[in-house]
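Progress against Task 2.4 (sequence-to-structure conversion) is shown through the following example record, which the project officer requested during the mid-term review.
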Amino acid sequence: MKRTTIYFDPDLEAELKAEVRRSRRPMAELIREAVREYLARATAASPPGVGGFASGRSDGADRAEEILAETGFGARR
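Structure tokens generated for the chain above:
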């Protein structure tokens, strides 16, 4: 493993130390676990752009075929 330095604000450090005492696990182990969980969630998230645009309508899924026809998506040229 590679050693690194992390800076915590006092409140976060106090919470982390309390969890170390409660769980009886080393601080480094808790930090590694938290980073792994964060990265797993981040990589499992939707691709960039998904859900990032608002059409102002809430019936997009119900109107999918109509919307695709309007845009010409899938039409042969």
